[in-house]
Amino acid sequence: MDKPLFRRWFNRSQVSADTIEVQAERGNADAQFYLGLQYANPGGAAQDYAQAAQWYSRAAGQNHALAQFNLGMMYASGQGVRRNDTEAEMWFGKAAELGDAGAQYNLGLGHYRASIQGLPQNMPESRIEAYKWFFLAAAQGYRSSDSARATVALKMTRQDVVEATQRVDAFITSNHRTPATP
Questions:
Q1: For residue 53, how many other CB atoms are within 10 A of its CB?
Q2: Which terminal residue of the chain has fewer beta carbons within 10 Å of its beta carbon, N or C?
Q3: Using CB atoms within 10 A of its CB, is residue 13 exposed (0-12), middle (13-18) or buried (19+)?
Q4: What are the pLDDT digits (tens) for 24-66?
Q5: Hey, what CATH class is 1-84 in?
Q6: What would the pLDDT profile of 141-164 be if each residue is shown by its tens digit?
C-alpha cells in the first residue's frame, strides 16, 4: 500500500508525532490494518502471516471491515492461522454486514456451495441467502457477483426470488444504504 495514501487515513498531526507502529499499539484500527497488510505482503521483507493475522484480528475486533475480510481470507486459506471455515464465515459475515462487497461475495459463494452440497431441505434457504449476498456485492460492482446471482436465480422458485429480494431490501434499510439494482 502506498504510504502517502495511507497517511491520509490518519490525523496529520498524529502521523507526524507517532509512527504507525505506535498508533497500532495505542489501538488505532487503521494502523493495525496497515501493519497486517505489511506483514501479509508477499515478497515483503517482513512477511509473516501469523503477525498479519494478529494485527488484522486487533483491527477486526474494532469493526474494521477490511481487516475482518482479510482475516476471513486467512482463515479460509490457512495463512498464519489454522484453516477454519467456521471462523472464515464469521469474519466474512461481520465484514459483509458492514458493507464489504468482497465479504458479501464470499458469503454468497459459501451459501451457493451449501445449496449444491447440503441437505435437500436446506438448499432453498442457502440459495436465498446466496442470492441476497451476490445481489448486494453486485450493487457495489464487485467482480462476477451479478453473473453468480443470475446463476443462483436459475435454480430458485419465483417465491424464493421474492424472499431474497425482501432480504436485500431489509439489509439496505437496516444499514441505511440506498438500494441499487444491478
A1: 21
A2: N
A3: exposed
A4: 999 999 999 999 999 998 776 678 999 999 999 999 999 999 9
A5: mainly alpha
A6: 999 999 999 999 999 999 999 999
Neighbours of 40 (CB within 10 A): 21
The whole-angstrom separation of Cα 103 and Cα 140 is 12
HEC per residue, the chain = CCHHHHHCCCCHHHHHHCCHHHHHHCCCHHHHHHHHHHHHCCCCCCCCHHHHHHHHHHHHCCCCHHHHHHHHHHHHHCCCCCCCHHHHHHHHHHHHHCCCHHHHHHHHHHHHHHHHHCCHHHHHHHHHHHHHHHHHHHHCCCCCHHHHHHHHHCCCCHHHHHHHHHHHHHHHHHCCCCCCCC
